[in-house]
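Please go through the sequence line and token line underneath and see whether the fold suits the sequence. See right below:
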Amino acid sequence: MTHYQKARPYAYYALLILTLTYILNFIDRTIISILAEEIKAGLHVDDASLGFLYGTAFAVFFSICGIPLARLADVWSRKKLIGCGVFLWSLMTALSGTAHSFTALAIYRVGVGVGEAAAAPASLSMLADLFNKKIRATAYGIWSTGVFIGSGLGFAVGGATLSVYRKWFPNGEAPFGMQDWQLSMFLVGVPGLLLAALVLMLREPKRGQMDDEVVEQSNVRPLKLFLQELAAVIPPFTVYNLYRLSGRQNASHAPGGELRGKRSVVVRNIGYGLLLAAIASVCIYFLGSPGQWITLALGGYAFVSWLQRVKIVDFPCFVMVFKSKAMRYSVLGFSLIGFTSYGLGFWFAPYIIRRFHSTPSEVGAMMGIIVFAAGILSILAGGYCSDLLKRLTPKARPYMGLVSMLALPFYYMALQAQDLSMLYTYASLGIFWGMIWIPSSLAMASELCPPRMRATAIAFNQLAGTLIGLAMGPYIMGEISVVMGNMGYNEADSLQMAMLLGLTVSAPLAVFMLVKASWYVEEEENTVPKRAADAGEMPLADLTSLARELPC
């Protein structure tokens, strides 16, 4: 019988603080949805630009910085990393209230993405060392409620501040010339500066302590490591970085001892870059929106460069995270669900305002309640049911992703509803079923690799979800809305068709990927130690020296 260590009371306090940071994360991220119509009018932009602002500008740099920050989370103090991230993204959100152009707001959104990139991998890595495998998905589920508490508060606070602004400044004569949406952004950014201090006061748990595989903390210089890891994904530093690493005699390598040649690694990297540039050029030629496709290509290039680097410096981690079929298929499947979740999550509020001519404060209040209640129930039920189902079948995690497909008919009915109360009813049911997969995706990523690789695995899960879901979902739906508008449809009808089309395309692909993941998950989870050893993983006693000797 497997022995599990019990979580201590302090673990639940740490869980509370980390959940608060995640709540704030999504307040700052989501508020732009309820402010979309005001931003659109104030900055004179279209739906595609709003989708880029909410999704791509945030998501790509969130992903690029998430790569080195996840690496840092595997070797440095996670509480310090999270605290610094909270401070940065809160400051950038507050500064968004000073933006008077689309470019300035986009730059601040990039800053929010950089700050928020520090939170998830480090938080989930900490939680894995505070809660044992028996209740880990439940802990992840509680932490994940921050998505919906934060999103709900983002809608409610954003709508409320717009209402208050209009009562206090009916002529728009606010201090410093701030518009209504600017005041909202400023007010939600300030509290995070205080929360950062609470995070820094947490105690750092020992890595692997809940799995009886304690890994000693390595001594690293965080800023140096972050900049070196960042250089590994930012062109043209990537080429030099890979050239340097491929020639190091102490670089990790595949069994057999054959190091990759410098030229082959560099040529591959340049080839990937040229391929992505060509794809972006084709998309720009036929679809326009150069900012979207250049930014997305940059994110893709950062990912493949990171993958090449991991293969050189930490081959066991490369094998366990990127060669795992269960990991790859599940990450793609959950990311495609995220395409729908992020797209609908952003556009529902603007759609309701356009279709039913509701005020932002009314929509913000109702969407806040729905997202909060349905989302919380979904995440808690998803974590509990995933753990319960895990006792019956090792395929529980991908199966919970398939269960979330029950959301589709409710989303369709919500978008077809002619009555506002029915729309809210169907939307709440869609959100409940549509988000039930989240704890399972996090738990599955952490269960398919050894403890020291969890932050990297979670970063892979997060990066794919961000690039496929957040960077593509809101923008693609916004772009389709613009195209429909150019064909003569009104704003409400064009957005409705864009959301329906997004649902129809992504769902079948998600089902296919999750079914494939379920074929491999049992064998790969049961063979984690053997697969790691076969890939060249060192004994636990040597891991500290490995962390110190890895080329940076």
User: Anything to note?
Assistant: DSSP finds 25 helices and no strands in the chain. The chain has one domain: 9-206+219-549. The first helix runs from residue 9 to 34. Residues 249-260 have pLDDT under 50 and may be disordered.
